[in-house]
Amino acid sequence: MTSFHSSNIAPLCRIPAADLRGGRTARPRVRCFAPSLGAGAPPWVGLVASALLLSALLSCAPSPPSQAQDSTSSEPSDELDTTFDGTAAEGDGDGENGCAEAATSAELLPTNLLFVVDKSGSMNCNAPPIDNECLLPERKVASEPTKWESTHAALVGTDDSETDRDEPGLFRQLQGLAGLSAGLVIFPVDSRCAILARGALTTDIAPLDGAQVQALDAALTLTPEGETPLAGAAIRGLDVLRERLVSGDIWGNSYLVLMTDGEETCQEAALDDLKEYVPLALSGFDIRTYVIGAPGSEGSRALLSQLAHLGGTARAAECEHESDQRNVGDCHIDLTESQDFAGDLAQVFRDLAQTTQASCAVDVPQDAFVDPDKVNVLFTTSEGSKETIYYDERNCSTEANGWQYTSTDQERIVVCGQACERLRADAGAKLNVVFGCKETLIR
Questions:
Q1: Domain 111-356 has CATH 3.40.50.150
Q2: pTM for this entry
Q3: Residue 108 gets which letter from DSSP?
């Protein structure tokens, strides 16, 4: 457990985008430059090894078919090979429809959620309208929950044995869901400004089974105290996600969820470092940063809004994220004017769960042998049975019950509706994607 301090600035290295999108067999070029972060730059900027490992992580596309199994068949066929062994498929069609034989099998992209939660002394206050100012870090009305208790309830839930009232929070609602892992960072870790050491988490990132939910519950059972080392805690959290992705300990979609009820009070200079690191985490490792401003964070609206914008989670394209006024900004999730903090926070977490949980999405291999306009998608259950998922171009959030591309670049396939729910419910389910065959349309 340490206070956040930075030294030993290392060159920051990036792989040119063209190398990431181009051939996967050649070693990518790495260009380095000295970051102009000034004195006190955080230790995460030494990304030379990380950038090289990132290129390895991004090189997971299927290998091109061998000469013995060419990308086109000498005997065209409209039959579909459902063996899905990653090799060429051949059939005995009538020659009317040619079928290239590139097949790939992929598990659903899992989701990793890391919550970075402020437990400074001001979280001991009741939320508005009971306490609108929190001049003293203490509860005004004993019968009403504090901001910390509301946070605990929203994340884990309440279990009142005297009234038989059991309201599950986010973690208990998502418990056992396939492809979903969560971890926790609490800051500060003492009564002043200390944060966790580099690489450490309050609760490690792990699948949300019963044991993990209990561990998260135990970590949140404490009394708030201390200052608000917001920048250092968030940087350390993003750094852990980056390191785990590079090492292969986690993979898939990763999100940091930062929640605070105040302003940086420990090392304000580190805020510039945080604003450098958030977009680097997004562009280099696809780590998105959600930001929640609890009552008391009014003076941090500009900062929190900017972080959400930089982290790829702005609530609207036209939101304010460049204001010179500290209390102006609306790109983040702002609960400072909530009159029901407990209820509104619980709803925020439910919405985040819908947005971030296993997205039923798979990446399309960026391979010269893959034709994204000719694809069949099949669902393989954990027991091995297979069935076709049909193409459905309707709105994925409201109507569709099939697969579609997430954007016009056709680099990712997502399964929507009840088909997605079935995939999420089966921990061993896989999407089998066959490229080159005639597209199957919704019926």
A1: no
A2: 0.69
A3: P
